[in-house]
Amino acid sequence: MKRTTVALSAATLLLPLSACGGSAEAGSGSTVTVTVGYQSKTINTVTAGTLLRSLGYFEKQLNSLHDGHTYKVDWQDYATGAPITAQMTAGKIDIGSMGDFPLLLNAARGKQLGRPTHLVSATGYNLRGGLNTIVTAPDSTLTSLKDLKGKKVSTSVGSAADGTLVRALQRAGIDPDKGASKLNQQPAVGASALSAGSVDALSQFVAWPGLLAFQGKAKALYDGAQLNLPTFHGVTAREDFARRHPAVLEAFLKAQAQATDYLNGHPVTAAEKVAEATGLPAEVVYLYNGAHGIATFNPALSPQLVSALEQDVSVLKSAKLTGDIDVDSFVDDQYVKKALGTSYTKRLTTPPPPAASEVWPKGGEKTLSYKSPKQLLAYLAAHQDGVRAAYVPDATTGTLWFADKAVWVADGDRLLPFVTPAAAQDYLTAHGGARTVSYREALERAS
């Protein structure tokens, strides 16, 4: 079932609400409905949502339990994590997926209402923070974060993208509360506001920045990976549900691991499946979820991700969105460890794939990878009408971006791509003789 909701702001989320009763105890031979809240268009949660649903792995795992129950999965689709948390603490959603900052609000809300939840696995992550991006209009004259002083910036308060905005402004010497005018808007509303010129910039999570850039409706101003702080998405479950139905939660996590392996093994097909289910362009999905995409998918709860979550608490506290949060008690990896068995340790230590330039040929079921952006450009120059999409990693952060949307720098024989003008300028400042070139000139130089 797909349910359209009006997402609550993080501030509203933390106000009291009356909770309805939770899942009923299931007797032998009864039907157990498992309600899963997910965000179809937050594509770094697809292994616990969109892709998992399309593959049917969770239902197959439940059918293999043979415990005398009949299981039914109720999939509920939301735009952000806030309404999922509201439904979880009302006892109406059993398992949900969301970004790191919403996960903390999920923990705080559950504790506040005496309905604790736990982080039980990770979905997609980027160890440098590249999942969030600040973008401006294509014709904007803004070139760096410092230009945002006194400007209007749209974001979703309490989201991971809001956390990126706050931290980025602070590093640029701008007071996040007074130095810029921050508007709390849903991603789609903010995207429309940017196009209409009613805001100067938009700070959002996947897949909005990549989508707007792909559509020619925005350009990157700030790459979240410049913070060099992990951003991730994860799966949260109600404590009472997990205690009553541990086998069901383990079945979900086994299915999530299967979906993760499918995505990693068949990245193009997986992108097509997610695109079909969400209406997003497959080229945008692949930017984030591809073989060398911005996101790495792994259900293991690594110490790096837990540490990042602990650092996020101070941002939410300073925004008065929550008080202290006991991250250690919120993180519960016992279920995913049991579900994955001996493979868990291997997953925990598996590094992200190395950055690479990649071309998706038209009509192709596989992509082509290149060791250098210049090699990719040479291919593009010779096949300009036969390419569906081309991706290059930022020369500094490794964040993947569309080749034709990148800022290109020529340094001798080298051709270097950057996500933002500011990053390119930093390189130029440190490397005398280097200069920016247009995408067209970059293609000519490579050929």
UniProtKB/TrEMBL annotation:
Record-annotated SsuA/THI5-like domain positions: 83-270
UniProt keyword Protein biosynthesis present: no
InterPro entries, sorted: SsuA/THI5
The organism's place on the tree of life at top rank: Bacteria
Gene3D superfamilies xref list: Periplasmic binding protein-like II
Signal peptide, first to last residue: 1-26
Keywords: Signal
PANTHER family assigned to the protein according to its UniProt record, in alphabetical order: ABC TRANSPORTER SUBSTRATE-BINDING PROTEIN, ALIPHATIC SULFONATES-BINDING PROTEIN-RELATED
Protein name: Aliphatic sulfonates-binding protein
